[in-house]
Amino acid sequence: MSALPSRISSLAPFLLQSPPGQVENVYNDIAGLLQAEEDTEGSSISEKEVNIQLRKAADPALKDHNEQQFVIVKVQDGTATSNATSTIICQEARIQVQGRDRYRHARLPISFEIDHKTLATSAVESLEHNPEAEPLRRAWDAALAEYIGDRYPDGKAAVFARLLGEPIGGSASEIEPTAAPEKGPASSAEADDSDKKPEEDREASAEGSQDVEDKAAAESNVPAASATLKEVSGPAPLVAHIVGTRLNPRNFWAGRWRGTYTYDPNHSSVLAARYQIVVHYYENGNVQMNYEHSEELAVSGASAQDAESAAKALTKAIEKAEGEIAEGISKQVEELGGDAFRAMRRMLPVTKQKVNWDKLVSYKIGSELSK
């Protein structure tokens, strides 16, 4: 009996530990290791069968990776001109319909399916937002977009009205179709071509411009969902995600900044914040810096009755906190270079010269050791 299934189950979780922009490389390395083991054992399992089994087993890990890393994808907005807009993949965006995972667009009233390996999106359907949460969500999203444009060269922000309990009309996973659903727009990328595209290219191509999205929201003409999905009514907590990714494979480094901010309109003076930062250098080595921190930010001047002022106050609190985090990390990195890394180096002898181990016998201590 082949040990392939057990090997796949033990290797697939490594996808979650992939550094920024390198999940595709890790996936290909895992496939190569599996095939090498099968060849060594003289297995009759073909390379195609290995890839099929790996793809099936890796899907959950790829989904978790994309949601945790706030991967940016492109999706057709459903307008007559079929503009491609970008959005963030995250847990708050995920819903279930008839047992299948779908994702909400951060700005547009649509949901879609995604291939977590190729990042191709498809099956776009309408999704009704919570009208009571939408004014603040839209205002905060616009304020963050302006902030991102000033601070993040390749950044993206998305604000979601968190789903509390069951959506209107029952649990999304239990919604039954009222009529045969129409097929949504074609996939935003051909799977066979996307399979070969490195993640840094896939993510970079997903960072489309934001200027068409507000127009698309008004012109959206997507197929009706199997059953109309709605977010819960009433004031709902908002979750904002900020992600900035810099990939420089030519110089062997990559980095990603992720910020998550949860705001409850019923507690307007507090903003829960969580930061996740990773930097990876891999030229002739493998060095990673991982930083995580959670805190509550004080918000002044935020009022649930005034969406614009609340959005500005929330964004101001984020700008101040992120500035302090960035400054603190910079100081820590400087201290690492001056103290920690220096302490890790091997000390020179009193002669201040490196020991020539090939001529150790010529040293007095070498003569003593040879007796």
TrEMBL record:
One of its GO terms (molecular function) is actin filament binding. Residues 194-205 have a biased composition (Basic and acidic residues). Residues 170-223 are annotated as: Disordered. It comes from the Eukaryota. Keywords: Actin capping, Actin-binding. Coiled coil: none annotated. One of its GO terms (cellular component) is actin cortical patch. It holds the Pfam family F-actin_cap_A. One of its GO terms (biological process) is actin cytoskeleton organization. InterPro entries: CapZ_alpha (IPR002189), CapZ_alpha/beta (IPR037282), CapZ_alpha/beta_2 (IPR042276), CapZ_alpha_1 (IPR042489). PANTHER family: F-ACTIN-CAPPING PROTEIN SUBUNIT ALPHA (PTHR10653:SF0). This is Subunits of heterodimeric actin filament capping protein Capz. It comes from Ceraceosorus guamensis.
